[in-house]
Amino acid sequence: MCNLIISGIRVFVGSFLLLLTTLAQAYQIDASKLEKYLDEVNSEGFIALVAQGDKVIFSKAYGMADKEKGIKNTLNTKFQIGSITKQFTAMGIMILKERKLINLQDPLSKLMDNIPEIWETITIHQLLTHTSGLMHSWQLPNFLEKGASPKALDEVLNYFKDQPLIAKPGEKFHYSGLGYFLLAKVIEIKSSKTWSDFIQTEIFDKLGMTNSGAGKDNAHVNDLAKGYTKTNGELSEVPYFYMPVLRGGGDMYSTAKDLLKWDNALRDKKLISEESYQLIYTPEKNNYGYGWTINKHHGKERIAHGGGVPGFNTYNARYPEIDLVVIAFTNVVGPEGYGLRLRRFTNFVLQQLDN
Fold first, then answer.
1. With CB atoms 3.0 to 4.6 Å apart as the test, which of 163, 258, 335, 354 could cross-link to 209 if both were Cys?
2. What is the pLDDT of residues 191-216, one digit of tens each?
3. Do 80 and 227 contact (CB within 8 A), yes or no?
């Protein structure tokens, strides 16, 4: 009995010390240093939010949401979040799995009619992990032009039906937006709802994400930032693109505050079971799980994904060991490369924990 009591005391003391260490790490992130960093670098069109536990450590908006109208970005400004959308499509698939409407090893031939023979053996699991062998949507010649006018999901899928596979299903990792378009179609077939309606009712509404949405033309979304490119110091608004062309893979808009609600729901294991969360966060080829990349960053487990659509780059990173979330958006895409400013900011945040 005495040994059991001593053992219990040791466990309690160990847990308490771990809690103190985590809290100490939280206070190592100095909001003034983050603000100083963003004031000194190119933070044009930048939204940043850093939270640990239930506390927002830093949040600030920079630049213009609409240059022509003189509207500034705020923390309530909606941004196109690009491939961060894939996290939500993956969650939708797991919801259907838990309702026993699909099996992750189901081949597309069991779920869809009138698909190419080379798609028939591709499984839900392979679509989720980018091991389907399908090409990336943006590799299709003139894909950008396809978004110049409204398109239904079936119409978008038809563009790819005569395209060859990049590899045999399951053979290797090849990032594919097309794979997530197909997952959106699976959700529509099995839920009898549009993909956007399913995500709205099963995720956004349940989590109180009132400033997030999908399946809408940009012109019909209030408080949505415009996307810009910057060349030789000059800002140019990107041409019109019908975002629902990217259903399932890149169609969503959201705010930094709403994404924090999402990240907190994932931390608290809402919506689905612990078993399903373990499947989502099990890395396959290239450290990719179901809608997330899972790897180490500054020695800490990172669960993250970026997004990029015309005029927007976004990044959502979670560090579960220290309950840290870093969210960064920009609506000014410059020559420095895809999401580089967002990742540099994230690196700076983590450096504060290293010091």
1. 258
2. 999 999 999 999 999 999 999 999 99
3. yes
**Dist. CA 83–CA 60, nearest whole Å:** 23
- Compute the distance between CA of residue 58 and CA of residue 49 in angstroms, rounded to an integer: 6
Contact predicate 315/306, CB 8 Å: yes
Could you tell me if 159 and 140 are in contact, meaning their C-beta atoms sit under 8 angstroms apart? yes
Which domain range does residue 227 map to? 29-354
Give a yes or no: residue 18 inside a domain.
no
In a domain, 231, yes or no: yes
Whether the pLDDT of residue 265 is over 50: the answer is yes
104 belongs to a structural domain: yes
**Distance of alpha carbon 24 from alpha carbon 150, whole angstroms:** 51
Give the pair of three-digit tokens for residue 248.
Answer: 């399932």
**Residue 18, pLDDT score:** 52
CA separation, residue 127 to residues 134, 172, 285 (Å): 9, 12, 12
**Rg, the chain, Cα only:** 21
Among residues 69, 117, 126, 118, the alpha carbon closest in space to that of 93 is found at 126
In this prediction the pTM is 0.91
- The CATH number of residue 46's host domain is 3.40.710.10
**Cβ-Cβ contacts under 8 Å for 330 (sequence gap 6 or more):** 44, 45, 46, 47, 312, 313, 314, 341, 342
